[in-house]
Design brief:
Radius of gyration: 18 Å
Largest sheet: 7 strands, mixed
Strand order of the largest sheet: 1-2-3-4-5-6-9
Structural class: alpha/beta
Number of strands: 10
Order of helices and strands: EEHEHEHEHHEEEHEEH
Length: about 260
């Protein structure tokens, strides 16, 4: 059914890595460095399934995050190294950290001190945007990248497998509207199969539903992408660039900006 795939990041601050899309990116992992904590259990997650467990190290404290980030920024700045973006991602959902809003404030202050032209980005699965403090913190960063993989409920539940049964497409789309004009919506485009269930969010019905959701949300832009690394579910298929181009053009034709990919 799937690969025995485990977490990618074994430290709180990692990189920098060179991203084609983001430039020179320094990563921050607010989850354990030997386990996974997430409110989704996506079939395509490069960090593996939640079933691998939470590990033993626990979440880093706010002070540990700040100290690790300042140490790395000071080192890079002293060496004259470039930095384009500080990105919150890692072994699970960063907004689950209880001190997430305060950590964002610390990060913005350190960014201003060492690399004032660098951007701060957060990759979030949108499950915590119902919390006003989390939402306000996301509004303070430069790139608030919010997940919406399908605007059709059964497809979303099949691909993303939210841990809360109360999480629905309608609720999340409504909540995403608070980021109108500022948020970036990220959508994974893929096909495949899981436990005998067919997966395909490339169909006209799926794309039409996404376009209607994007129109409601009015994001700053939309980021579509497909598989780039190994996935825990083996029976998933990458959607190639020519087909992504066709989907992107359909979205643009509806008046929605699509980020270069």
């Amino acid at each position: 059914m799937g690969k025995d795939q485990t977490v990618l990041f074994h430290s709180t601050v990692f990189g920098p890595i060179h991203s084609r899309r983001l430039g020179v990116s320094l990563g921050i992992n607010l989850m354990p460095d030997d386990g996974k904590v997430c409110s989704f259990d996506c079939l395509y997650c490069e960090a593996g399934y939640n079933s691998q467990g939470k590990g033993t190290t626990g979440l880093p404290t706010r002070q540990q995050v700040s100290d690790a980030l300042e140490s790395k920024l000071k080192e890079m700045n002293g060496a004259g190294d470039p930095l384009d973006v500080i990105t919150f991602s890692g072994n699970g959902e960063p907004t689950l950290h209880p001190d997430f809003p305060a950590i964002i404030d610390d990060t913005l202050s350190l960014r201003d001190k060492y690399y004032p032209t660098a951007k701060v980005s957060v990759l979030t699965n949108s499950t915590r945007i119902f919390d006003p403090e989390v939402a306000e913190a996301l509004k303070r960063v430069d790139n608030n990248i919010l997940k919406l993989d399908s605007a059709i409920d059964p497809t979303m539940h099949l691909i993303d497998r939210p841990t809360s049964k109360e999480f629905t497409v309608e609720k999340v789309i409504e909540a995403l509207c608070q980021f109108s004009g500022t948020g970036i919506i990220q959508t994974m485009i893929l096909r495949g199969e899981h436990c005998g269930h067919k997966i395909d969010n490339t169909t006209p019905e799926e794309i039409d539903a996404l376009i209607e959701a994007y129109k409601r949300i009015q994001p700053r832009e939309v980021m579509i992408y497909s598989l780039d690394r190994t996935t825990p579910e083996e029976h998933l298929e990458k959607v190639e660039r020519p087909e992504l181009d066709v989907i992107a053009q359909r979205i643009r034709n509806a008046g929605i900006k699509v980020m270069d990919y």
